[in-house]
Design goal:
This protein has helices at about 10-15, 20-25, 40-50, 70-80, and strands spanning about 5, 50-55, 60, 65, 85. By secondary structure, it is α/β, with parallel strands linked by helices.
Length: about 90
C-alpha cells in the first residue's frame, strides 16, 4: 500500500499565500477563482498510485488557517477510505 504521509488539498488561501509566490512564478501557475474540488486531489492520488493520504491542515504564522481543521475533517468524512486527518 502506498501512503502519502504529508499532503494538503489546496485551498485558495493556501495557494494565495506569499510563501508560494516563487513556485507560482517558476511553474507559471495561477490561483483559481473557485476552490478546487477534493476530486482534484483524489485524481492526483490515482495518477501517482497513492492509495491513502494523511491530509494535513496548515496554519501559517501571523495569518491563520490556510487549510483549516474543519475543511480537513469534512474531506476525511467524505472519503474515510482514502484519507485520515492531521490537525494544525
Amino acid at each position: 500500500m502506498s501512503v502519502d504521509v504529508w499532503m494538503q488539498h489546496p485551498t485558495r488561501r493556501f495557494l494565495s499565500h506569499e510563501m508560494l509566490e516563487p513556485l507560482r512564478r517558476w511553474g507559471g501557475g495561477t490561483i483559481p477563482e473557485d476552490e478546487f474540488s477534493i476530486s482534484v486531489t483524489l485524481d492526483a492520488m490515482e495518477a501517482a498510485e497513492v492509495e491513502f493520504g494523511l491530509l494535513s491542515a496548515w496554519h501559517a504564522p501571523y495569518v491563520g488557517p490556510l487549510v483549516s481543521n474543519q475543511e480537513v475533517s469534512g474531506w476525511v468524512g467524505e472519503h474515510p477510505d482514502r484519507f485520515a486527518g492531521i490537525a494544525a
